[in-house]
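Quick start: read one record
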Amino acid sequence: MSVAPPIIHIERLSKWYGDVLGLNEVTAEIGPGVTGLLGPNGAGKSTLLKLVCGMLKPSLGKVTVAGEEPFGNPHVMRRLGLCAEQDAAYPGLGAWEVLTYLTRLQGFTKAAARDLARRALERVDLGQVLDRSVGTFSKGMRQRFKLAQALAHDPDVVVLDEPLNGLDPTGRRALSDVIHELGDEGRCVVVSSHVLHEVETLARRSVFLFQGRVLAEGTREEIRRELPEHPLHVRLLTSSPRALAQQLFDAPGVMRVTTTVDGVEALTTQAEAFFEHLQAAAGRGELRVTAVLPGDEDLEAVFRYLTR
């Protein structure tokens, strides 16, 4: 792998198909680790990924991968691994045979390609079916094979378009573990999905796309803090809801406090100050709270606020 950490730079990137605008002046930066590319169907996610992978040429703007433009650039393509959303059928050919051939296209010797192909298949739990025809694979197995294909040549930039589609819960968990490992290894991993709660378990940072534009990027907490017009809903668990509610009325930015059977729910316009108040009061023994549960800080809520 390359010593220098790969970074994807996207600057005022636009792409249109005839009269249809696919991307509109998108600007973002993606570094090592796992980053989620989020948005509904038609938001421009696949177009952006194709531009990053050099499969499309920008209409306007610029995209670089590790300082180089990817379109028509074999050097960049050798550093990239793509797990596309669409399946590619290889009737009659065994998984190991197909992956060895594809890996040899990256310039490896036959012996090296066979070894890399085997390792990639074993990494995605297909080591027991090396010689089985890819055409007989189930949907979940084909999804894992696509990931193996993306990883076989040891890329430092990995692009995954809807990687968990078609997987059962066990398969999702196993593939999610592999994606986490890739990020922990220092690779630049981009995971595209319209299923926000799936990406929430995979990526620390996210880029939100909507109608071809970037609405926000950063961690969930960073993006949520940029939405002060939407008060933060916080749920606090305690054995003394009434006493806790009385103590919260003076907390910074509190708009409303209501008691529940097992705790208190509060709305605040000053999230950071509110949590600092809680921490300080708890440290002085003034508050007895067993759990703090943000009620609308998940990606689903953040995206809902962004698109209102």
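The mean pLDDT is 86.
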